[in-house]
Design brief:
The complex is a heterodimer of chains A (about 190) and B (about 190). With about 190 residues, chain A is of the alpha+beta class. Chain A has six helices and five strands, in the order H-H-E-E-H-E-E-E-H-H-H. In chain A, a hairpin with a 2-residue loop joins strand 3 and strand 4 (about 100-105). In chain A, helix 1 (about 1-15) packs antiparallel against helix 5. Chain A is elongated and about 75 Å long. The two termini of chain A are about 40 Å apart. In chain B, helix 1 runs antiparallel to helix 5 (about 130-160) and helix 2 packs across helix 4 (about 115-125). Chain B has about 190 residues and is an alpha+beta fold. The chains are: A alpha+beta (about 190), B alpha+beta (about 190). Chains A and B meet through helix 1, helix 2, helix 4, helix 5 and helix 6 of A and helix 1, helix 2, helix 5 and helix 6 of B.
């Protein structure tokens, strides 16, 4: 039994090695970067744009999406479509690589476009959150599937690893202290912040 | 070297066990939001603050601690009539409306269940919070993340020392690197 679990632990680890590294880098990126950190903004560009008369904001958002088809971007959700105080329509197309921000300015009949590019750690941080299987882009869909496997694998490795310790060297003092220390910190913080 | 890395793998793994379980379970919850109920328990209470409590949101939050208001202060808006702000921690979220004239604080409390708490902990980051325990979470999350990378690296070494497992291991690792690195490059360069 122990030999089988050890093999499974090892094989699952090898089959998910790069995902675990992505999870680790994502956690470090989140730790060391502030809110919205790690993104580089490029300058504005403008394009003329006149929607058909009587278009609703949702229709305008759909037209903008169709016009640019930003790579990896999904259409803007209905809940995020609102005019700003100046009567302009801001639209944000989020991707793991950054955000395409389009501002429809009806008075000028134009679109103002700005692109932000995430740093590599921010990109990996974004990638680790991709688990929604119903992705528009096939690359994102494939990644979401693999990420899905990886998150179950993380659980399997944590459980099998602890089993291997208890099955092979349960009396090992330093391991006991490590487990007790980690568990105590987790439980204490959980109780204080729940 | 082998003993050192084997022990490092063991110590890191068992120390991070509950943290990794938290990450894994909350990730499953986020991937399958329909599987778990995330509805908070909502309640409301009103308190009249003492005359010596300043009108400042931070002081008001401090005065409300006896009823459990603890966490990061955010979304502060101050007006002549008083102020509104939120106090949040993984287990609870408070919307506070304070009326200067009556010194009354209306507190709307949303208490999270176990899965929602794990979800909020998963999203904690950094050590720039008002509320010190959240900074402690931020530090631990950084350490566990670094630990996860070390677990991966030491795991690779430990596998490589088992000669009989090298062939199948190389295949599995090649599958993982081939698929993941290719996808990462394709997505990054899209």
């Amino acid at each position: 039994m122990q030999a089988l679990i050890k093999k499974l632990h090892m094989y699952i680890g090898l089959l998910n090695f790069s995902n675990l590294i992505v999870f680790g880098i994502a956690g470090l990126a989140a730790t060391f970067q502030g809110e919205g950190g790690g993104a580089r903004y490029e300058g504005f560009t403008y394009e003329s744009f006149t929607p058909p008369p009587g278009s609703t904001d949702k229709q305008i958002a759909a037209l903008v999406f169709e016009r640019f088809r930003f790579p990896l971007a999904d259409p803007v959700g209905d809940w995020a479509i609102h005019r700003d105080a100046g009567g302009n329509l801001p639209l944000e197309f989020w991707t793991v690589n950054g955000i395409y921000t389009v501002l429809y300015e009806p008075k000028q009949n134009r679109l103002r476009i700005q692109t932000s590019r995430n740093s590599l750690p921010s990109f990996l941080n974004g990638m680790h959150t991709v688990t929604e299987l119903d992705q528009r882009d096939w690359r994102m869909r494939a990644w979401a599937w693999y990420n899905h496997v990886a998150l179950w694998s993380l659980l399997a490795m944590a459980i099998s690893g602890t089993y291997l310790w208890l099955a092979s060297r349960p009396g090992y003092r330093i391991a006991q202290y490590s487990f007790a220390g980690g568990a105590a910190i987790f439980i204490l913080l959980y109780i204080v912040t729940r | 070297m082998y003993r050192l890395l084997r022990n490092t793998h063991l110590f890191l793994g068992v120390a991070a066990f509950l943290f990794l379980m938290m990450y894994g379970v909350s990730a499953v919850q986020m991937a399958h939001p329909g599987w778990f109920s995330m509805k908070p328990t909502v309640s409301e209470t009103r308190l009249i603050l003492t005359a010596d409590t300043p009108d400042d949101p931070r002081a008001i939050a401090r005065a409300l601690r006896p009823i459990g208001v603890r966490g990061d202060i955010r979304e502060v808006s101050v007006s002549d009539a008083g102020c509104k702000f939120e106090v949040a921690r993984p287990g609870a979220y408070y919307e506070i409306e304070y009326a200067r004239a009556t010194r009354e604080a209306k507190v709307r409390i949303k208490a999270n269940g176990f899965m929602a708490v794990l979800n909020r902990i998963h999203h904690l980051r950094g050590a720039w919070h008002d509320y010190a325990p959240l900074n402690a979470w931020g530090v631990m999350i950084g350490l566990v993340s670094a630990g996860l990378i070390l677990l991966g690296a030491t795991g690779i070494y430990l596998w490589f020392t088992i000669h009989s497992e090298r062939p199948i291991g190389i295949v599995l690792l090649a599958i993982n690197l081939g698929i993941c690195v290719t996808l990462l490059v394709l997505i990054r360069t899209a």
